[in-house]
Every structure is written in structure tokens, then in C-alpha cells.
Amino acid sequence: MQELNGKPVAAKIKAAVQAELQQIKKTLSKQPNLLVLQYGNDQASKTYANRIEKNCQEVGINFSYEQFNKNPDGFKQRIRTANLDPEISAIMIQQPLTDNLKNSLELISPSKDVEGITSASLGKLFTGLSGLKPCTAEACLEIINYYGIKVTGKKAAVIGRSNIVGKPIAMLLQQADATVTICHSKTKNLAAEIKAAEIIIAAAGKAALITAEMLSSNSIVIDVGTNFVQGKLVGDVDYLNASRKVSKITPVPGGVGTVTNQVLMRNIVKAFKNINLNNK
Ligand code: NAD
């Protein structure tokens, strides 16, 4: 079994981002600026924002964070003003959002949508146009490419069909010429779908959903899931048993998540360059 460790993949992207930022410093007086907006007090979201702040500091991206409570209109208004603010080049809205604010994601200007989650960004992805792509989906492909895994003609099963994780991953795999099956909570025989595939992307958010019995010796497993079980971070795959059986597998932690964070940094630089170099 080969472990598909995310750390060298992340390090490679980070080095490229740092080099680009050095170049930007030489040519422009401005720097990329990420604004993270949170509505409410969800602690996991705050922890995630802290991690993003650390990643930004490490590569040299300016970071600011604003939290809103009991003022949904003020929250939406802040997104609108951030869209117009030339000092802000990237906007992230922390999830989960309350039902009355779910549509606020759509308010983000596509040019500053560094998570690639607005319908405009997703539309570009689905039609093959260049744009900011969802970070986790790109991270999966980065791992696949870094480890030289051939995708063309292979059968892939994506478990999970959310707009920002499952569907974009399926789309990128399909664009890389895989034959893709999307599985979800109503899929009748998940084990059979997984057995039929060589590349398996687990993105359901259910610990131990995918067992060693569902996998085979030529399975290549990318585990996107992040679940906390007794205070420990685990993926969707029973790693201990699966790793004894499969051909290749990403660990959790140290797999997709590590790479996702650096893809986000790269998207922030991309957005900055699109805004500032195209408007020069
Ligand atoms: P989601 O809840 O929006 O979607 C989960 C999907 O899984 C749904 O489409 C659902 O149909 C499917 N599903 C649920 N139970 C299933 C089952 N028993 N069998 C088959 N399919 C099932 O979640 P999401 O936002 O798409 O995130 C998925 C997972 O990825 C979560 O664990 C999340 O924390 C993780 N995640 C990881 C990263 C990363 O960088 N590693 C980034 C984003 C999300």
C-alpha cells in the first residue's frame, strides 16, 4: 500500500504561492487581502478561520475576520461593501449559515469567490471555463496528479453529491476523462458501486462508512471526509483495515485537508491577480 500523504503536495503548492507573492511584491504596491465573515458563534468555524489565518500569515497574505450576531441585514450589507472595496481581494463566508442566510453566499462577487462556491463559479467549472474552483475538489486532483495516478478511462466513484464537494470533484474527474459514478445517501448498493470503481473519493461525512470489505487490492482511495469520533479526527474510510488492503490511500488527517488549505491560498493569489492585473 502507498500512502498518499498530502504534506508534500501542500508544500509544493505553498512554495509556488510564496514565489508568486514575492513577484507581486516587486511589481505592485498592493497585497492580497482575505476577508472572512462569520455569522453566529459556531466554534468549529472559528477554529477553521484561525487555521486559515495561520496559513495566510505563513505565506504573506493579509487576513481579516469579522463576526456578526443577530444582524442578518448587516451581514449581507457587509458582503456587498466588501465586493466593492478595492482593498479586499478575497471573501470567504464561514458555514454553517442559518436558513435565512444561506442565499447570502450568492452575494459574493465571483471575482472574489476564492472558495469557488457561488453559482457563477460553479457554472464556469461545469462548462469548462476558467475561474475559481472549489478548493477541496482541486485538492483531490492535485493529490492524484502529484502521485502520478492515471485517470483517463478509469472508473471513479464519488461518494457524496454536495454542490461544493461531491459534484465538483465528480466534474473534475470527468474532465480528466474518468468515467464517474456519483453515489449518495439514497444509492441502493454502495458496496457494489465502490467495488466497480478503481478511484474512490469518499466525501459523505460519515465515519467508517467505507469498510475494507467494499475495497479491493487495486483501489485508489481519496478520503475527503472529516469526522470527529471520541475527539479524534477521522475520515469516511476505516483507514486501519482499508490501508492493509488497498493500492493507495490518503490519511486523515494529513491528506486532502492539508492540500485544500494551500489550494485556498493559491485561489486568493489568483483572485488578486485577476482583479489587479486586469484592471491595471
Ligand atoms: P454534505 O453533508 O453537504 O454532503 C454529504 C453528502 O454525502 C450528501 O450528498 C449525501 O447524499 C452523501 N451521503 C451521506 N450519507 C451517505 C451514505 N450513507 N451513503 C452515501 N452517501 C451519503 O457534506 P459536504 O460539505 O459535501 O462535506 C462532505 C465531507 O467532506 C464532510 O465530512 C466534510 O467535513 C468534509 N470536507 C472536507 C474538506 C477537506 O478539505 N478535507 C473540505 C470540505 C468538506
Automatic annotation (TrEMBL):
Its EC number is 1.5.1.5, 3.5.4.9. The keyword Transit peptide does not apply. Catalyzes the oxidation of 5,10-methylenetetrahydrofolate to 5,10-methenyltetrahydrofolate and then the hydrolysis of 5,10-methenyltetrahydrofolate to 10-formyltetrahydrofolate. This is Bifunctional protein FolD. Coiled coil: none annotated. Pathway: One-carbon metabolism; tetrahydrofolate interconversion. It holds the Pfam family THF_DHG_CYH_C. Keywords: Amino-acid biosynthesis, Histidine biosynthesis, Hydrolase, Methionine biosynthesis, Multifunctional enzyme, NADP, One-carbon metabolism, Oxidoreductase, Purine biosynthesis. The keyword Hydrolase applies. It catalyses: (6R)-5,10-methylene-5,6,7,8-tetrahydrofolate + NADP(+) = (6R)-5,10-methenyltetrahydrofolate + NADPH; (6R)-5,10-methenyltetrahydrofolate + H2O = (6R)-10-formyltetrahydrofolate + H(+). It comes from Halanaerobium salsuginis. GO terms for molecular function: methenyltetrahydrofolate cyclohydrolase activity; methylenetetrahydrofolate dehydrogenase (NADP+) activity. The lineage of its organism: Bacteria, Bacillati, Bacillota, Clostridia, Halanaerobiales.
